[in-house]
Amino acid sequence: MKRHAVLLTIAITSAILLYAQEQQTVEMSGSICSSACVNQNAGQATCDTNCAANDKGGETVFVGNDGKISKISNPEMAKGKMGQQVRMKCKMNKEQGSMEIIEFLSSIR
Predict the structure, then answer these.
(1) How many domains does the chain have?
(2) Which of 79, 73, 82, 69 is nearest to 109 (CA)?
(3) Which residues does 78 contact at the CB level (< 8 Å), separation at least 6?
(4) Are 26 and 90 in contact (CB under 8 A)?
(5) Full-model pTM
(6) What's the pLDDT tens digit per position in 21-56?
(7) Could you tell me the CATH number of the domain that includes residue 32?
(8) Which residues contact 103 (CB under 8 A, 6 or more apart)?
(9) For residue 19, is it within any domain?
(10) Is the residue at 91 inside a domain?
């Protein structure tokens, strides 16, 4: 019986820690872009800022300085930032490959 209690406690604690880790706010830098304006160069994604600023359609995505693309789950926060380099706080949802923007810290250009 004690063994079951210990295993249950470990399982619950692990689930809580995983949930807390997934919900951490992180700071990221990169470009707000339309998915229609993302270019792939040598395995790295870049944003054609001229294309993005002219609203070519497509989903709103974030192209990190590391060349990785994340879908933005709350694109209304990114209105007016299309094609801009930004630094922001966000929460990552690794299961869906998306991010939720919490706040913009600065626009670089």
Answers:
(1) 1
(2) 82
(3) 32, 60, 72, 101
(4) yes
(5) 0.73
(6) 556 789 999 999 999 999 998 889 999 888 877 767
(7) 2.40.50
(8) 88, 89
(9) no
(10) yes
